[in-house]
Design goal:
Layout (H helix, E strand, L loop, with lengths): L2 E10 L2 E10 L10 E6 L8 E3 L1 H9 L3 E2 L1 H17 L1
Parallel strand pairs: 1-5
Antiparallel strand pairs: 1-2, 2-3, 3-4
Length: 85
C-alpha cells in the first residue's frame, strides 16, 4: 500500500488542532495511522508546526508522499529554522 503524510483533525468545534500522521493512502482522514510525527495548531501565534524532521525525512525517503498542505507547511518551517540558525 502507498503511504501518505497528512494532517488528521482533532480538537473541538471552532478549535481545530491537527496531528501529522504517516498513514495508508486509502484510510480515512481521522483513521489510525502508522506513526504520528508531529502536530499543527493553526490558531496559535508564531511557530504552529512541531514536527520531527528526522522522521519526516525518513518516511519521504521510503516513498511516502506528503499532502500539498503539509508540504507547504514543512517548507515554511524548514525555511524559518534555517533563518534562525
Amino acid at each position: 500500500m502507498a503511504l501518505k503524510i497528512r494532517l488528521s483533525r482533532f480538537g473541538t468545534k471552532n478549535e481545530p488542532h491537527f496531528r501529522v500522521l504517516v498513514t495508508e493512502e486509502r484510510s480515512r482522514r481521522d483513521g489510525a495511522g502508522v506513526e504520528q510525527i508531529g502536530a499543527y495548531n493553526p490558531r496559535a501565534k508564531g511557530s504552529t508546526l512541531s514536527i520531527k524532521f528526522d522522521r519526516y525525512d525518513y518516511w519521504v525517503s521510503k516513498g511516502a508522499k506528503p499532502s500539498d498542505t503539509l508540504n507547504s507547511l514543512v517548507k515554511r518551517a524548514k525555511r524559518a529554522a534555517a533563518a534562525k540558525a
